[in-house]
Amino acid sequence: TGMRVAVVGAGVSGLAATKCCLDEGLEPTCFEQSQDIGGLWRYTEHIEAGRPSLYASVISNTSKEMSAFSDFPFPEHFPVFLPNALLLDYLRRYAERFSLREHIRFGTTVVSIRKRPDFATTGQWNVVTEAGGERTSDVFDAVMVCSGNFSEPSLPLHCFPGIERFRGRYFHSRQYKHPDVFQGKRVLVVGMGNSGVDIAVEASRVAAKVTISTSRGAWLLSRVFERGYPWDMILNTRLMSLIKTNLPGPLSWWLINYKANKWFNHENYGLQPEKRYFLVPVLNDDLPSYILTGRITIKPGMKEFKDNSVLFHNCPEEEPIDIVVFCTGYIFSFPFLEESIIRVENKHTSLYKYVFPTHLQKPTLAVLGLIKPLGAIMPVAEMQARWVSRVFKGRGANVSPPVPQNAAQTFRHFIPPAREIPELILKTEWLVYLDTLASFIGAKPSVLGLLCTDPWLALTIFFGPCSPYQYRLGGPGRWEGARQAILTQWDRVLKPTRTRVPAGSSSSFSSLLILVGFLLLLAAVIFGF
């Protein structure tokens, strides 16, 4: 028999893990506690009494071309940013296309994962699962943990003086179901991450007043970016990545500042972040206009709660409040693992490349999808799965995590504490991380190499968006359709929106691209790339 791999969870990461195991000839068994695939994207349990909640209409923050699994583009008629029903539809097509369902055990909870006594030689695990009230124990050669890190809400009430005397209602954003609770109320949203801003915008349509409290501010990006193109297809390019990673800190800060303030001046809207924080931008299309029309007010950090009001830092007057929503992030936890396997010490955990625990004698357990880069999570989880499945199989020496002993010291990778996830995000440039893992398995595209053999593709890869198909051009898991998918990516973006074309219009975009491409190529040659 082949190598048996246990996959925990059938969300985005779990599906990618199962598929990559099959690609490498391993035998995956995926355990999913609910009755269906999709994980975070399946909000059925949030829809009560037949009324769709906010979550039924959640729109993805990354565009379809940048979010796709690398060998499975989204259908061209899908909108550019997807409501989660369509994202779920895509995941179901993916599961069907690669026959993943037969490897998933639904309604099965993983209770515990423990090393076997002979772990040092075999690297095997005992996995105890529970289904229908019955517990089963199995032996697996390796484990992929894909249960995500949105597990437990983080609500540090001790950080908010006076909360015990506050007479209004308060809850964590995880408990939020429907804007009806805000009808006619004065609402305070604490925290400025994506969910905080989304909830504030939705609440402001029915509430009497909405205030967002943020101590650090935030950069705001709109999905609709320069000249109407999706933000990530403009920002996540190899050229931009090269610029961002090679600029000195202050210049890098200035560049982000310049890009973000092109849409609106953040200082005038009370949003300008403080310089000392490296902030990951928040994505929202509505907030500036809601601030401009007075529906939402931005306030500094919370000082203390009174009976029916709150005080903010540097603001003498009290703000009357009826409901508080704490958007304070999540704690990642793995209740089925022993503490010693993934040590979380003072909010750090030692995971090599955010994937492999560094102190295991054998690299037979991996954590997928824990990283939160500024970019789509699907290609990242898939790339992690491609690497991990090859490490499990023992292919290629350059891919394996380092041996323990000294490793724990070397690779204490920083994973942010829950309530700081929006701010102190893993400072990993999305593209750099993907490239690093791709180089481990020999799937990183060579722009210079392609310049000689396929110059048009090379230019598209370097100056255009870094869409995931680039990682299927060569190496293990090479996909025949990758080149075509890259060269047609803008067609799939324009297809759902160019639904009315005025007479006599031609595509000036591609001719402009060609011109710019040749000029840049010339410059590149002159400056020796």
TrEMBL record:
<keyword id="KW-0274">FAD</keyword>
<dbReference type="GO" id="GO:0050661">
    <property type="term" value="F:NADP binding"/>
</dbReference>
<dbReference type="GO" id="GO:0034899">
    <property type="term" value="F:trimethylamine monooxygenase activity"/>
</dbReference>
<keyword id="KW-0812">Transmembrane</keyword>
<dbReference type="InterPro" id="IPR050346">
    <property type="entry name" value="FMO-like"/>
</dbReference>
<comment type="function">
    <text>Broad spectrum monooxygenase that catalyzes the oxygenation of a wide variety of nitrogen- and sulfur-containing compounds including xenobiotics. Catalyzes the S-oxygenation of hypotaurine to produce taurine, an organic osmolyte involved in cell volume regulation as well as a variety of cytoprotective and developmental processes.</text>
</comment>
<dbReference type="InterPro" id="IPR020946">
    <property type="entry name" value="Flavin_mOase-like"/>
</dbReference>
<dbReference type="GO" id="GO:0005789">
    <property type="term" value="C:endoplasmic reticulum membrane"/>
</dbReference>
<dbReference type="InterPro" id="IPR000960">
    <property type="entry name" value="Flavin_mOase"/>
</dbReference>
<dbReference type="GO" id="GO:0004499">
    <property type="term" value="F:N,N-dimethylaniline monooxygenase activity"/>
</dbReference>
<dbReference type="Pfam" id="PF00743">
    <property type="entry name" value="FMO-like"/>
</dbReference>
<dbReference type="GO" id="GO:0050660">
    <property type="term" value="F:flavin adenine dinucleotide binding"/>
</dbReference>
<keyword id="KW-1133">Transmembrane helix</keyword>
<dbReference type="InterPro" id="IPR002253">
    <property type="entry name" value="Flavin_mOase_1"/>
</dbReference>
<keyword id="KW-0521">NADP</keyword>
<keyword id="KW-0285">Flavoprotein</keyword>
<keyword id="KW-0560">Oxidoreductase</keyword>
<keyword id="KW-0472">Membrane</keyword>
<keyword id="KW-0256">Endoplasmic reticulum</keyword>
<comment type="similarity">
    <text>Belongs to the FMO family.</text>
</comment>
<feature type="transmembrane region" description="Helical">
    <location>
        <begin position="509"/>
        <end position="528"/>
    </location>
</feature>
<protein>
    <recommendedName>
        <fullName>Flavin-containing monooxygenase 1</fullName>
        <ecNumber>1.14.13.148</ecNumber>
        <ecNumber>1.14.13.8</ecNumber>
    </recommendedName>
</protein>
<keyword id="KW-0503">Monooxygenase</keyword>
<dbReference type="InterPro" id="IPR036188">
    <property type="entry name" value="FAD/NAD-bd_sf"/>
</dbReference>
